[in-house]
């Protein structure tokens, strides 16, 4: 009879699976403060410490969806800040709140 011992594979997890899988949404929008003109074009974003001016808008689009459930109406923009940072933001057309996407 062999005296070799069996070892668990280092690639196999020994953790017990939980009863319910933990799901986490990706790229959850976060509320942000935006200074905008009267046409709702963003002029500056609050970065947490200061207002940073929007230097340019690269892209704009609008989404109107799910009218049969809960209406979704958003104006998206990809903006370049003075600092060079690129942000995807949107204004909820129903509530007028602004969000950072991603």
Average pLDDT over all residues: 85
N→C terminal distance: 59 Å
Coarse structural class = mainly beta
Main sheet?
7 strands, antiparallel
Strand order of the largest sheet: 1-7-6-5-4-3-2
Characterization of this structure:
About 0% of the residues lie in helices and about 45% in strands. It is mostly beta strands and about 100 residues long. It has one domain (about 30-100). The chain has a seven-stranded antiparallel sheet with strand order 1-7-6-5-4-3-2, with no helix packed on it. A hairpin with a 5-residue loop joins strand 6 and strand 7. The N and C termini lie far apart (about 60 Å). The mean pLDDT is about 85.
Features:
102 residues, mainly beta, seven-stranded antiparallel sheet
């Amino acid at each position: 009879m062999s005296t070799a011992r069996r070892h668990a594979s280092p690639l196999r997890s020994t953790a017990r699976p939980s009863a319910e899988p933990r799901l986490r949404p990706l790229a959850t929008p976060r509320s942000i403060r935006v200074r905008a003109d009267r046409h709702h074009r963003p002029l500056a974003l609050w970065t947490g410490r200061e207002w940073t001016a929007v230097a340019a808008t690269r892209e704009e689009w609008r989404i109107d969806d799910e009218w049969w459930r809960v209406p979704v109406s958003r104006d998206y923009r990809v903006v370049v800040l003075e600092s060079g940072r690129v942000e995807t933001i949107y204004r909820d057309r129903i509530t007028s709140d602004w969000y950072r996407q991603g």
